[in-house]
Amino acid sequence: MKRHLISAADLTRDDAVLILDTAEEMARVADRPIKKLPTLRGRTVVNLFFEDSTRTRISFEAAAKRLSADVINFSAKGSSVSKGESLKDTALTLEAMGADAVVIRHGASGAPYRLATSGWIDGAVVNAGDGTHEHPTQALLDAFTMRRRLVGAGADAGLGRDLDGRRITIVGDILHSRVARSNVHLLHTLGAHVTLVAPPTLVPVGVEQWPCEVSYSLDEVLPKSDAVMMLRVQRERMNAAYFPTEREYSRRYGLGGERMARMPEHAIVMHPGPMVRGMEITAEVADSDRCTAVEQVANGVSIRMAVLYLLLGGSEPATTLDRSAARPADSEENK
Ligand code: NCD
User: 214: which strand partners?
Assistant: First the structure.
């Protein structure tokens, strides 16, 4: 593992599988009456959120707390950032407080990279979503969810296996989606075949260089999909009209009960949230057993525990199960 987690594209297959396998161990902790491990006692994790977030922020907070770290939540609203303070001065403040890890969400693509390479802080930097660039822990929790649902249920069944040959379809506002970009890279690394489906106006320029296919017909792709990931239309990042009307969008790219019936029986519907019911997904689909949205949130805590654990290198085994492979302190790279 590297020192920071900035981009899913930086992860090797071994890195990714190590995180997924460590997350399986962390998930076991969640099933215990006492969900806490002493691993990161005395360490400080700062959640630095310059953009709105519900799931991601509380998920990182829960993950750090379950590992016994001290957590400082910093949101730009109500801080000196709204008075014009720069990222550099904010970072220097965090450094002065002794942050061992900074989890950052920022509207500007590249902000976490800047923080990690600036020398302003010594701690590990974790990207929790930067602009339209990447959201690596979301892709990891999505892969974790797919592996559990598609490769095998239960903890041990998922261990060590990946998503070789699985067909994953990602639908919607690809242009503005850091979730889509991170997923394309990670799923490709794990051996899956990814197809993006979107109106031509919401497909990024240069998508030909991405390791995936593009289709404009959801109905054609659905019967061949093992998982279908629906994305929200990110109006807050749009400065123009990308499609005629919401009704038209839903009709062509939304997922309702009738369309879902075209998917293979084993196939799942995923959504990173927040869902806009009635737009990209109907309430019927969102509430169906095939939709993993709530499971994804729960899995997010296990993934973020694994990431914080591996980056901060706990001095004790992750769980009672002593798997030395999951202990970064023991690996050659970290000596
Ligand atoms: C996404 C995000 O913020 O990138 N949500 C998330 O982290 N679960 C997607 C979105 O905002 O639509």
Answer: 196
Closest atom, ligand 1, to C-alpha of 56:
7
- Closest approach atom of ligand 1 to CA 300: 8
| Distance from residue 198's CA to the centre of ligand 1 (Å) | 17
Taking the C-alpha atoms of residue 235 and residue 217, their distance in angstroms, rounded to an integer, is 22
Q: What is the 190 CA–ligand 1 centroid distance (Å)?
A: 22
Would you state the pLDDT for residue 244?
A: 85
pLDDT, tens digit, for every residue of 238-257?
877 888 899 999 999 999 99
- Whole-number pLDDT of residue 161: 63
The CATH number fitting domain 8-134+297-334, selected from 3.40.50.150, 3.40.50.1010, 3.40.50.1370, 3.40.50.300? 3.40.50.1370
Fold of 136-295: Rossmann fold (3.40.50)
Per-residue pLDDT tens over the stretch 274-292: 999 999 999 999 999 999 9
Q: Looking at ligand 1, which atom is closest to the CA of residue 179?
A: 4
- Residue 55 in contact with ligand 1 by CB distance below 6 A: yes
Long-range Cβ pairs for the range 313-316 (8 Å, 24+): 314/37, 314/39, 314/40, 314/67, 315/39, 316/37, 316/38, 316/39
**Strands 193-197 vs 101-106: parallel, antiparallel or unpaired:** unpaired
Chain region(s) in the chain for CATH 3.40.50.1370: 8-134+297-334, 136-295
29 CA distance to ligand 1 middle (Å): 26
pTM assigned to the model? 0.91
